[in-house]
Amino acid sequence: MFNDKAVFSGFSVDDLSLAESFYGEILGLDTTRTDNGLYLQLATGGKVFVYAKSNHTPATFTILNFPTDDIEATVKTLHEKGVTFEHYHNITDELGIAQDNTPKIAWFKDPAGNILSVIEDTEA
């Protein structure tokens, strides 16, 4: 039924301009602004639609995972760009990386409070 259509996911934010700056300038994704929201172009060819919602509530789960072949370097680079990583007691190290997980993972939030991650993928 949907084999010939480009399926996409979406999520809300409280400030579309902040989201556009964060996803485009900080994370380096290609973004396209429309009258209704913002498209994020993923390296896989897929798209994610970001829309403003006046009563936005941040997602309580990880909405996007960004694979990297060097999580420590990626976390340090994002930290230099102002990204703050979540620290969970007895799970994450001083950088915010869950080292005991396989694969290693570190969580952070977008300006709207939605949870994102960088995840080590040595095949990335």
Question: In a nutshell, what does this entry contain?
Answer:
With 124 residues, the chain is of the alpha/beta class. The protein is built from 2 helices and 8 strands, in the order βαββββαβββ.
What does this structure look like?
The protein has 124 residues and is α/β, with parallel strands linked by helices. 17% of the residues lie in helices and 31% in strands. It is built from 2 helices and 8 strands. A 4-stranded mixed β-sheet has the order 1-4-3-2, with helices on one face. Strand 3 and strand 4 form a beta hairpin. The N and C termini lie far apart (31 Å). The model has no long low-confidence stretch (mean pLDDT 93).
Shape: globular
Q: Based on the structure, what is the oligomeric state of the protein chains?
A: single chain
Number of β-strand runs: 8
Tally of individual helices: 2
Mean pLDDT: 93
Strand order of the largest sheet: 1-4-3-2
Query: What's the end-to-end separation, in Å?
Result: 31 Å
Q: Please mark out the parts with pLDDT under 50 across 5 or more consecutive residues, or reply none.
A: none
Question: Compute the gyration radius: what is it?
Answer: 15 Å
Helix and strand composition category? alpha/beta
